[in-house]
Specification:
Strands 15-16-14-17-18-19 form a six-stranded parallel sheet, sandwiched between helices. It has a five-stranded parallel sheet with strand order 10-9-11-12-13, sandwiched between helices. Strands 1-3-2 form a three-stranded antiparallel sheet, with helices on both faces. It is globular, with a radius of gyration of 23 Å. Helix 8 packs across helix 11 (302-313) and helix 16 (447-464) runs parallel beside helix 17 (485-494). The protein has helices spanning 15-26, 41-49, 55-58, 74-96, 105-111, 124-136, 150-163, 200-212, 235-246, 262-273, 302-313, 327-340, 355-367, 401-404, 415-424, 447-464, 485-494, 503-514, and strands at 2-8, 31-38, 65-71, 117-120, 140-143, 167-168, 174-177, 180-183, 190-197, 217-222, 252-257, 279-283, 297-298, 347-352, 373-374, 394-397, 430-438, 470-476, 498-500. The protein contains 18 helices and 19 strands. It has four domains: 2-96, 2-Layer Sandwich (Alpha-Beta Plaits), CATH 3.30.70; 102-171, Rossmann fold (3-Layer(aba) Sandwich); 188-321, Rossmann fold (3-Layer(aba) Sandwich); 327-514, Succinyl-CoA synthetase domains (Rossmann fold, 3-Layer(aba) Sandwich), CATH 3.40.50.
Length: 516
């Protein structure tokens, strides 16, 4: 076993690029652990915790890139370095297609007259300064970076408001501006619906469902996860609502978020009252009656919200969704799955790459009167003591920091989820596995190619122990995404997975199978 580091001095790459490279070298035969990161103190601590930081890597500065790995032998190291070089060369070649490259935001703003947006993806301690430079150059900002203090966020958003600019983030993972997908986002059709969202996969789920229903969006504007906290004051959500209100192309507005505090909710209600367009809200887990006085439609699930927005855009009456497939098909799924389960199999285990999808599933399970443990539980008594060990009914957000320290996000790197799928199959009381698959830009190029074989193995493990394992999934994506949604769905079905049209429907089906 060899621990190896290579340091590329003064070689900055954004976190998405490094996550993609980390994912690709992690699957090289003979690699035990691997990561490619910038040499910040925080990242070095992560690498140290994963036992892939050597004395060479310790010397790296925040502007240096570290390749860290634990490998079987030197030949494996050579193969990994070749993969890294190929990926970096590919990025350089791509960059060369751009007429001019700039080392600073100030230089780019001065030389490119029509520049109007900056995407910030640097270590958190540098992000505020870079964003401020962009705002001072009259550039809208999408900040992918996290680990930015709430005080810095407030300062940046106040500056943006002064200048009439968007300041999406920190930790804003998804946006679609004028048809251009930013961060983790999907390729969707243009249409009449404008979206404001504080959650990344929440935006992805509603935009893909809208697209699948032959409708489209004008803009999908992110806020960052903390925007609705009292300390921030909903500054960006309020500004984005005003922008969509003034946008002539936007005929319906959809808001997606966890519930804000009472103080911020009052501000949002006041803003909605001032909008002379239909507004749909999905404050996941919130009381729908809280927005009644605003005149907006309050929907409980992401799918209901997406369908409501489509109905309003098409001048139709709004209806809630339970299942969009025939009732007879749902009943057949339930019958076939139930008859193969033992009476002792009573639990469901949800393993999610999308945090908002996990949260939505917990809410649906609660409504079905299933108590659910989680690392993002609704109530303190249901918080898992150890996220590595499931308890009774469990829903895991595997994109949480606990699982991603030293590893890329599970939308990019499926290894932890693959291992957990097989582990859950060993539990004799598990009846159903519930999974999500997120497609689009910035994510794994073939997630089903990893998940399907893991499910086959999990089903074999259960069968060897005289049991059957039911597996239900949904795919967040469109037929325009680079992964080819039809091929992804076919791979899942071939592995014996029931694929449902949405996360909400997948969770409802899983709960029906679980009911005895």
């Amino acid at each position: 076993m060899v621990v190896y580091n290579k340091v590329n001095e003064n070689a900055y790459y954004d976190s998405v690029t490094l996550m993609v490279i980390s994912s690709k070298i992690s699957v090289v035969e003979g690699v035990r652990h691997a990561a490619v990161m910038m040499g910040t103190d925080h990242n070095k601590e992560i690498m140290k915790g994963s036992n892939i930081l050597s004395a060479e890597g310790e010397k790296a500065s925040a502007s240096d890139m570290i390749i860290g790995l634990e490998a079987d032998n030197d030949d494996v190291i050579k193969e990994v370095l070749a993969v890294v070089d190929e990926e970096l060369q590919s990025k350089t070649t791509s960059d060369d297609d751009v007429k001019t490259k700039f080392r600073t935001i100030d230089m780019a703003a001065k030389r490119i007259g029509q520049l109007n947006l900056a995407v910030i993806s640097v270590p958190g301690k540098y992000a505020k300064n870079e964003a401020m430079k962009a705002l001072n150059n009259d550039l809208n900002v999408l900040m992918f970076s996290d680990n930015v203090s709430i005080e810095e966020e407030v300062e940046l958003k106040e500056k943006a408001l002064e200048k009439g600019l968007l300041m999406m983030g920190p930790d804003c993972g998804t946006a679609i501006l004028n048809g251009v997908a930013l961060g983790f986002a999907n390729k969707v059709s243009k249409g009449k619906i404008g979206i404001v969202g504080a959650s990344g996969t929440g935006i992805q789920e509603v935009t893909t469902i809208i697209d699948k229903n032959n409708s489209g969006i004008t803009q999908a504007l992110g806020t960052g996860g903390r925007d609705l906290k009292e300390a921030v004051g909903g500054k960006m959500m309020l500004m984005e609502l005003e922008a969509l209100k003034m946008d002539s192309a936007t005929e319906v507005i959809l808001i997606v978020s966890k519930p804000p505090s009472e103080v911020i909710m009052k501000k949002i209600i006041a803003a909605i009252k001032d909008i002379d367009k239909p507004v749909v809200t999905c404050f996941l887990g919130g009381d729908p009656s809280l927005v009644d006085e605003s005149g907006a439609l309050a929907m409980e699930t992401l799918e209901d919200a997406a369908h409501a927005a489509v109905d309003l855009a098409n001048g139709k009456e709004v209806s809630k969704i339970t299942f969009t497939i025939p009732t007879s098909q749902v009943e057949e799924y339930v019958r076939k799955e139930k008859e193969q389960l033992k009476d002792s199999q009573t639990y469901i285990r949800g393993l999610f790459s999308g945090g908002t999808l996990c949260y939505e599933s917990i809410l649906i399970m609660k409504k079905k009167e299933f108590n659910t443990y989680s690392n993002v539980a609704l109530e303190g008594k249901y918080v898992l003591e150890n996220p590595d060990v499931s308890k009774e009914n469990t829903m895991l957000d595997m994109g949480e920091d606990y699982f991603t320290e030293g590893l890329p996000h599970p939308m990019l790197d499926t290894r932890l989820r693959v291992a957990r799928i097989k582990e859950e199959a060993k539990d004799e009381k598990v009846a159903v596995l519930l999974l999500d698959l997120v497609l689009g830009y910035g994510v794994h190029e073939d997630p089903a190619g990893d998940i399907a074989p893991a499910v086959k193995e999990a089903k074999r493990i259960a069968e060897q122990n005289g049991r059957y394992l039911s597996v239900v999934a949904s795919i967040c994506g469109t037929d325009k995404d680079p992964q080819n949604i039809e091929e992804q769905e076919e791979k899942l079905k071939e592995a014996g997975i029931i694929v449902m049209p949405s996360n909400a429907q997948a969770t409802r089906l899983a709960s029906l199978i679980l009911e005895k």
